[in-house]
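REVIEWER CHECKLIST
Item 1: Sequence provided? yes
Item 2: Single chain? yes
Item 3: Sequence as submitted:
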Amino acid sequence: TKNRAYYATLGGVIAGLLWLLNPASMLVSLPWIGYLFWQERVDWQRTLKYSGITFAVFCLFVFGWCARNYIQLGGFVSRTTMGMALYAGNNDCALPLMIETEINGCVAAHHPNGSIQEAELLQTIGEIQYDRLRMADAKRWIQNHPRRFVQLTAVRVREFWFPTTDTRLTVAKLMLNSKSGDVLGDKFPHYAQRMASKQSRIAWTISAITALSLPGL
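Item 4: Structure as written out by the authors:
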C-alpha cells in the first residue's frame, strides 16, 4: 500500500513538472491517468484511490502556478504568451519558415523580445492585457486573411514533422532585402550562413526522429 501511494504521488509530481515545462504535456498525462484507471478497473475502488492521488498531486502544480500568476500578474492563468506568439506569426510580413521570418525582421517587429515599442507596451499594460490585445489582433488578421492563414498553417504543420533541410536558397533570397542585413552590415552574410547551417542540422535530426517514430508507433 505504501509503495502504491508513493508511486501514485511520484506520478503526479512527474506529470506536474512536465506541465510546468510544457502545458501541452497534459494531452499525454491526463489520458495516461485515464488509461491506468481503465486497465485496473476490476478493483475500481483501489484504482480510483491511487489514480485520484496522481490527479490531485498534478492539480496542485497547476493550481499553484496559476495562483502565482494571479498574485504576480493579476490573472488566474497558466501562460501569457499565446497571443503574442500568434500575432508574431500571423501578420502581413509573416512567412511560413521561422528562419525566413527571423531574417526578414518580421518577428523582431512584432514581438517584445525584438521590438522596443512592443516591449514598452507590454510593460505599460501588463503581460495579461498585452497578450489578450495581441490575441485579438491576430484573430482579426486571420479573419481578414483566411487563405493566407491556411497556407501558413499548412506549411508549418509539414515543417513540424519534416522541416526543410536545405535552407541555403532561402537565405540567399532573403539576404537581398533584409532588415537584419542593414543592422549587421558586412557581418550579415556570415551570420545568415551560420544560421542556415545550424537550421539544416536541426532539420535533418527532426526528420530522422519523425521517420523512426513511425515504425516505433
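Item 5: Key structural point noted by reviewer: The mean pLDDT is 84.
Item 6: Recommendation: ____
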